[in-house]
Amino acid sequence: MLRASLLSLACAALVAVAPSGARAAEPAATPFTLPALPYAVDALAPVIDARTMEIHHGRHHKAYVDNLNAKVAEFPALADASIEDVMANISDYDTAVRNNGGGHYNHSLFWSVMAAPGQGGAPSAALAARITQDFGSDADFRKAFADAAAKQFGSGWAWLIARPDGSLAVTSTPNQDNPLMDVVETRGTPLLGIDVWEHAYYLQYQNKRADYAKAWWDVVDWKAVNTRYEAAMQAKAD
Ligand SMILES: [Fe+2]
Questions:
Q1: How far is the CA of 195 from the centre of ligand 1 (A)?
Q2: CA-CA distance, 108 to 91, in Å (whole number)?
Q3: Above pLDDT 70, what percent of the chain?
Q4: Could you tell me the distance, in angstroms and rounded to a whole number, from the CA of residue 62 to the centre of ligand 1?
Q5: Is 142 a member of any domain?
């Protein structure tokens, strides 16, 4: 304790005598913020337990935000760009921005497309019709999505996206990549995404990713997905 106090005093003295030009640079701007969960940490139980949500949001997502903000000094364009713009031009940045910016975008979306079990509603008539048109049936869509989640080797995400031509597709991306990035094979607007990193499910499901992906349908917030689909179709029309 005494040692810590002496150290603190010594540091204060050094700061006091240092010329202003010798001070550390101004702290970097922090344009990206961790969004609050739109529900309580236990709201998604029993599909996703509260402890997983606390760690996933409060530690993993927070780390992505902190690490992304730490890159602003190196990439000043980050200070004025939306996270969507950063994703669309991710080839202008380095791997750390790709990983942490992707992590921030992906998790922000993930929290927003989930709701308490049974509270998420259903696909709108327009989205349901397009699912049938592009996948054959809702069951076929769900199978394609589950397959994408299961077959993503290692950490990553499975997605339902709206393509630029308005069609729907199921894709997967490794690590924290996403379909907005200008470096991925199949690009589009994410409507729904499931995190298949082990940190998303391991406490509750251990290695049984398929069980997590199957249970996850109960917490999909179709009302949010419908809104994202309508916005994507509106953007396409504009
Ligand atoms: Fe995650």
A1: 6
A2: 21
A3: 88
A4: 11
A5: yes
